[in-house]
Amino acid sequence: MRYALMFGPEANAFLFANSGLFTVREAFDVLVPVNGETALIASDGAAHKHRRRLVQPAFHRRRVDGYIARMAENADALIDTWRPGETVDVYAVLREVTRRTTVQLLFGDRLAADEDLLAGELQTLLDGIDRPYSQLVALRSVPNPFWRKVLQARTTVLDRLMREIADRRMDPTPRHDVLGLLLDSRDEDGGGLTDVELQDQAISLMAAGYETTSAALGWAVHLMLTTEGVWERARAEVGDAPPTAESLPAFTYLGHVVDEVLRLRPPVVMSARRVAEDFEFQRYRVPAGTMLLYSPYVTHRMPELWPEPGEFRPDRWDPDSPLHRPATPATFLPFGGGQHRCIGSVLALTGIKVTLARLLARTDLVHDGAPVTPRSITAMRPREGVHVLVKEVRPA
């Protein structure tokens, strides 16, 4: 297979502005057995526009604002289990609570209460796509126990989801989670998502909704505790009260922290497109059939765009800082860009900020000093977790 690597803001802008030159179906072909044929991540053209239009209302900011209280409650429930003096892998436990919260918000309390589904089959399913591209190709090409287990996990998750859908169709009581909105969503012709489309969107939203969010949370705690003054300054800003839709936007410094985490450690290291027709870019001719790779990680560490690019500097997002550079969709792209920008970006950002706000308000933590290194490119996360000493837990 022929590859082309297009890195940097000019390349990103060209890619996002010329979506007709590329397809995503072939680029993400290895994810289709898990995410499904009709998932947004693997949809192109009119089909993608149609499905995105039906899914988008579930992720509007006003909808997400209604989830803030539940996010805070789940973070508080986790913190309530901690005791001063104990050591916690904060990435691991935040991963669990993020998974539970994601399923609650997407598909309701009944699915979220099914711990066997959450901790077993769903995790097996997600592990199935957390492999390098060449390994995924190989695993699909020959019969093997691992891939059979992944496909069986998908069947189990979908069976459980379809039982939930059937129950809701029998009981027309309005539900305000994402599944309820997807079931009710209609286009201008009165058509909605088919059962297959519902299944595929559900699986792909679950996969995208918690792996990347929990990875960002793990990096945030690590970077905030290992950079002098950051935790204390953010703590002073958020105060003690649980965040609300009105107060969360006022946490300016916390917003800078989250942006800087996503710049330095973007969960999605790189992404891909398949070239549908020949094109030229900066004197290079790229033929159809080429696999094109672009990288948020590379862009976010370019010194010509970001002074001191390898350093964690939340103040660079303050317009008054000498390190400040205005971010654009081509220079700051933790959620991708163009027509395929992550549809759940507002939900993810809100979840990260709410969870961090509760940690700041209720805990004093000390990093254990162990080095933290990244692993994986599908959701770059701390390899051995983030281990902290709990010094204090304050009541909610």
Explain what this protein looks like in three dimensions.
The protein is of the alpha+beta class. Helix content is 49%, strand content 10%. It is built from 16 helices and eleven strands. A four-stranded mixed sheet has the order 1-7-4-2, with helices on one face. The protein has a three-stranded antiparallel sheet with strand order 3-11-8. A hairpin with a 2-residue loop joins strand 5 (279-281) and strand 6. The longest helix is centred in the middle third of the chain and has 32 residues, at 195-226. It is globular and about 55 Å long. The model has no long low-confidence stretch (mean pLDDT 91).
Please trace the helix and strand order, writing H or E for each element.
EHEHHHHEHHHHHHHHHEEEEHHEEEE
- In CATH, the homologous superfamily goes by the name Cytochrome P450
- The average pLDDT value, as a whole number, equals 91
- Beta-strand percentage range: 5-15%
Number of domain modules = 1
Largest sheet, described in full?
A: 4 strands, mixed
Helix content: 40-55%
Distance between the termini: 55 Å
Strand segment tally: 11
The CATH architecture can be named as: Orthogonal Bundle
Label the structural class.
alpha+beta
Indicate the radius of gyration in whole angstroms. 21 Å
Give the CATH level 1 class: Mainly Alpha
Strand order of the largest sheet: 1-7-4-2
Unreliable residue stretches: none
What is the 3D shape? globular
Question: CATH fold name, please?
Answer: Cytochrome p450
Q: Please report the number of helical segments.
A: 16
Pfam families: p450 (PF00067)
Protein name: Cytochrome P450
Keywords: Heme, Iron, Metal-binding, Monooxygenase, Oxidoreductase
Family: Belongs to the cytochrome P450 family.
